[in-house]
Amino acid sequence: MDKKYALVMSIRKHPQVRMASLLAGEEVFHFAEVNENALPCQMHRHDFVEFFWVTRGSGAENRLNENRALAVGDYAFVSQGDVHGFDSTQGLCFSNVAFPHVVWKTLLGRYPTLGPDRFASNIDMRQGRLSSAELDQLNAASESMRQGGRDALVLDTFLLTAHRLTQRSEAQRANVPAWLRDAVERKHLQREGVLGLTQSCGYSREYVARACQRYFGKTPTQLVTEARMVGAVRLLEQTEKSVLEVCFESGFQNVGHFHQRFKQMFGVTPRRYRLRYRGVTPKEVSLSWGFLKGLGGGGWRFNWPRRIIRKKGESRFLILLRPKSRGVEVEGEGWRNRR
Question: Based on the number of CB atoms within 10 Å of its own CB, is 31 exposed (0-12), middle (13-18) or buried (19 or more)?
Fold first, then answer.
């Protein structure tokens, strides 16, 4: 029997999991945290791609031709053609994100610097192990999914972070000089910028630039910008700091430049990203000037709009309505507090 035909027949023996069976409502991807109680997981195939990483314990990923031992920090990009399953040896727990392959292809088209398709690469280039610090960053990036976020913005943000953290497999990482790896992974990289990166390397700016291009396929400026964006996202999600504070604390010196780069990477403004992360949806409404004036005169506290488009005696603007114990809180983009 032809080996290729035998492989195809072997693959067809295993059940196929379909994306449509995993999604509910308006969800665009599936997220799951799998523990030892759900294992072993039988061999299967699927019509989507997925990314998983081990958060606790140890076990094995079973494939057609081999089994791969799994430990904390191990990850893999799983393509549509892969057939695999899982076994636990000591409390294996892993997180899994499943989504249509076209989502990743769209990101590649939007950001060419991401490089080749990770899901179309050789299996050895689609797996590796994260350091403890990288694993903490990946777990933090997935927090919005744990809280129930299932829209395209949450997925794109996570995938960009996962790609940055996993773009160097262990084989690639071993080839990176220690002086360059330590400089790129420094905690204060986003604050010190390209100059700090160059100084910590101890070489000329030109030499460092060539090394970054050779080992990471990116310029020092791109590496610093990515680190700053990861820091900005973390501050937007986990703190109540204003967008201005987030801008400066993540290393940017110009608010306009920060907004521009953030929107280029995530497709929305920093403020809109925070609102979507927290599940607040802006709504455009029309309220009469008398109504607003009546609220203020009646002792209500609300935010006053800076820019109002007047139309036929009404004030039309973008606001957010949030329920409060005593009534309604009104706020929106570009507003300032006023009693």
Answer: buried
Bigger pLDDT: 161 or 62?
161
Residues near 1 by beta carbon (within 8 Å), at least 6 away in sequence: none
> Closest by alpha carbon to 238, among 249, 254, 222?
249
Whole-number pLDDT of residue 11: 44
Is beta strand 30-34 parallel, antiparallel or unpaired with respect to 84-99?
A: antiparallel
What does the pLDDT look like over 237-270, one tens digit per residue? 788 899 999 999 989 989 999 998 888 777 778 8
Strand segments, DSSP code E, in 23-122 are 30-34, 41-46, 49-63, 67-70, 74-78, 84-99
Question: What pLDDT was estimated at residue 168?
Answer: 57
Tokens at 131, concatenated: 């350091």
Helix segments in the chain, DSSP class H:
3-12, 101-110, 132-141, 143-146, 152-166, 170-175, 178-184, 189-201, 205-216, 220-238, 243-249, 255-266, 270-277, 289-297
pLDDT digits (tens, 9 = 90+) for 81-132: 788 888 887 788 999 999 999 999 998 888 877 877 888 877 767 888 887 7
CA-to-CA distance for 228 and 225, rounded, in angstroms?
Answer: 5
pLDDT score at 37: 80
- Determine the Cα–Cα distance for residues 80 and 45; give it in Å rounded to an integer: 7
Give the mean pLDDT of 159-185. Answer: 76
Spatial contact of 236 and 268, defined as CB atoms under 8 Å apart: no
What's the pLDDT at 103? 92
Task: Give the DSSP H/E element, type plus range, for residue 320.
Answer: strand 314-324
* pLDDT (0 to 100) of residue 142: 92
Alpha carbon 96 to its chain's center: 13
With tokens 């907004």, the residue in question is 259
> Within a 10 A sphere around the Cβ of 7, how many other Cβ atoms?
13
Torsion over CA of 238, 241, 246 and 249, rounded to 10 degrees?
Answer: -90
Distances in Å between the alpha carbon of 32 and those of 165, 179, 338?
20, 37, 44
Six token digits for residue 332 = 């929106």
